[in-house]
Design a protein that fits this description.
Blueprint (H helix, E strand, L loop, with lengths): L12 E8 L16 H4 L5 E6 L7 E5 L2 E3 L8 E2 L4 E2 H9 L18 H20 L1
Antiparallel strand pairs: 1-2, 1-5, 1-6, 2-3, 3-4
Helix pairs in contact: 2-3
Amino acid sequence: MDDPVNGVDPMGLFRFGKRPLSFLPGSWHWIGSGGSTANKRNYELKHEQGFYEDGTGDNIGLGKDKMMRNEDISKYKLNETHFDDKLMREAEKSLDPGEYKLCKMGGQSNNCQDYADRLRDRYRFLRTAKKH
C-alpha cells in the first residue's frame, strides 16, 4: 500500500504537495491552507509540486526557471486527493506550462499554484472525455 516515508504508491496515484518557499524558515508558517484566501487566489507563500507515486520518483512543478522535476517529496505536506498517474502524465504532456509569472499585478499570474490548478483541470477534462 502507500509508503509515505519513501513516497511510493504501487497503485500509481499522483498527489500534489506544498512546502514553504525557500526563503522562509523551514517549519510550516502561519499562512493557512485549504479554504484560505491566499490558497484560493494562488498567492500562498508556498511552492506546489506534483508527485508521481508509481516508484519512478518523477515529479512536476513550475518554477521561475521553468519546470521543476527534482524536488524531495519528504519536504512537502501532501494533499490527500489522489489522481491516476497514467492520466496525469497525459495531462502534463498536453499542457503548455507557459511563462512563469509570480504575481497577478497588472494581469494574470502563472506561478506554481496556477500551474497545479491548470494541471488538475486538464486531468479532469481528460478523465471526463475518456468516460464519453
